[in-house]
Design brief:
Number of domains: 1
Largest sheet: 6 strands, mixed
Distance between the termini: 64 Å
Length: 179
């Protein structure tokens, strides 16, 4: 059985030390490698925006619904459970309604990351609270905990649109199981 190999060689007309210095100058890559992002600020700002939303609006006992006006676009949309809620006022009511059936609702952030342009940001989180009638079930104060993921579109340094998925079936099964 014969082995086949493909070999490629590149001759660089420069001293080895100069080539090595260029290859290990990571900070200088943006000067000659246009595939390297040179501005991480947009993605960092998007990550901070998502983290601020999760920590201020979903922080347990003192949820700050006024943060919605500061962090969301006026025509904000959220797509959840095959429904769309449009506008900040409607979204604020949606959050309030959810927090009424899940008291002390808080989201613990597991991870937040954004694309280089900063116009998309993703967060993975764990939501927890106390059952106060979730899924139309009796309000029994049982602890509720489920995971979720949110993908936001960012526009003009505000959250403009969100697609959210939650482990609702698992939460429902936990609440309807016998102890």
């Amino acid at each position: 059985m014969s082995k086949h190999a493909i070999e490629t060689a590149v001759d660089i007309d420069a001293p080895v030390e100069h080539v090595w210095r260029m290859l290990t100058d990571f900070a200088g890559y943006q000067q000659w490698g246009d595939y390297m992002p040179n501005d991480v600020e947009p993605s960092r700002r998007a990550e901070e925006l998502a983290a601020a939303f999760l920590s201020r609006v979903w922080n347990g006992t003192s949820n700050d619904l006024s943060a919605i006006d500061q962090l969301m676009a006026e025509d904000y949309q959220i797509h959840s459970a095959m429904k769309t809620v449009s506008g900040r006022d409607a979204f604020r009511q949606w959050v309030s309604d959810f927090q009424n059936v899940l008291t002390n609702a808080r989201n613990d952030i597991l991870e937040v990351f954004a694309n280089a342009a900063g116009d998309r940001v993703v967060a993975r989180w764990i939501c927890s609270g106390l059952n106060n009638g979730m899924f139309g079930l009796p309000a029994d104060g049982r602890p509720v905990r489920f995971s979720g993921i949110a993908i936001w579109r960012v526009e003009n340094e505000r959250l403009a649109e969100c697609w959210i998925e939650r482990a609702g079936l698992e939460a429902y099964r936990d609440l309807t199981s016998t102890r």
